[in-house]
Write a structure and sequence with these properties.
By secondary structure, the protein is mostly beta strands. 15% of the residues lie in helices and 41% in strands.
Length: 122
């Protein structure tokens, strides 16, 4: 029995890094910032959905209703720093304003079509 437990722990310890999410960091332009639904009586604060492009994916994340978010701090079209760790996202503006949110949608950004270099036929 003791040997079984030891073997199980070793296998689990080896498997955990395979499931660990890789952190993704970078700078992006805030694409959208919208209220998420309406505030209920049970919610302390309004939730917001933020959208931005990171590498080859577009992320939408939602703020927590237990934490206050000042919508005026996050201007659509401005640069921001992001850190994605699994489903948790931290967003920070150049002015130092920060918000944490959870991923609610991930979408692949389609590649932009290359400009046609062929000359028109006559």
């Amino acid at each position: 029995m003791r040997r079984f437990c030891t073997v199980s722990i070793v296998i689990l310890a080896m498997a955990l890094p395979a499931f660990a999410a890789k952190k993704v960091q970078g700078t992006a332009t805030l694409k959208d910032f919208q209220p998420a639904g309406t505030k209920d009586k049970g919610q302390k604060h309004q939730m917001y959905d933020l959208s931005f492009d990171a590498a080859t994916k577009r992320y939408t994340c939602r703020t927590d209703s237990d934490k206050s978010t000042n919508a005026a701090d996050f201007v659509v079209g401005e640069q921001m720093n992001y850190e994605i760790d699994g489903q948790k996202v931290k967003i920070k503006t150049p002015e130092g304003k920060q918000v944490e949110c959870k991923v609610v949608r991930v979408e692949v950004i389609p590649p932009t079509p290359a400009a046609s270099t062929a000359s028109p036929t006559q």
